[in-house]
């Protein structure tokens, strides 16, 4: 699917984790976000926040050799612009999914459903000239953009025996 342009692999991280311990992977960046108002100065306080795709997993090996995983996924992207005290900022749009999943050693599972659909429409025109019949078509334009993204996470846990390395 990647060769046909229908799929884009964003990241292929691999991590080892001790049983019953949390492992976290973040593919993203830090962005400045307004976090409050300083009462003494009246200035907006800004903190750094992680955005991107975050995956938290806590595995547990069961008696039958299967693996029980607590999986939490968060996808965050920069959203709309907002103005706070005359300063431009942006919102952060977040989607989350969480589940308990039981799989066999080496079995691949897929987590999907983190979908984002963006529709943008823009109308541009030159005042007065765009209203002239027929000739006005030269002085106005319409743009429409539709974007559909679905994030799918593929997990393949492997039990690593300390004796085997």
Main beta-sheet annotation:
4 strands, antiparallel
Q: From the alpha carbons, calculate the radius of gyration and give it in angstroms.
A: 24 Å
User: Strand fraction band?
Assistant: over 45%
Report the principal-axis shape: flat
Spatially, the strands of the biggest sheet line up as 1-2-3-4
Number of DSSP strand runs: 6
Q: Briefly note the structural class of the backbone.
A: mainly beta
Calculate the terminal CA-CA distance, rounded to whole Å.
34 Å
Helix content: under 10%
Query: Order of helices and strands, N to C?
Result: EEEEEE
Mean pLDDT: 82
Q: What is the number of helices?
A: 0
Which stretches are poorly predicted, pLDDT < 50 over at least 5 residues? none
Q: Could you outline the blueprint of secondary structure elements for this entry?
A:
Elements: E1 23-37, E2 44-61, E3 67-84, E4 87-103, E5 109-125, E6 140-155
What does this structure look like?
The chain has 165 residues and is mainly beta. Helix content is 0%, strand content 61%. The protein contains no helices and six strands. It has strands at 23-37, 44-61, 67-84, 87-103, 109-125, 140-155. Strands 1-2-3-4 form a four-stranded antiparallel β-sheet, with no helix packed on it. Strands 5-6 form a two-stranded antiparallel ribbon. A hairpin with a 5-residue loop joins β2 and β3. The mean pLDDT is 82.
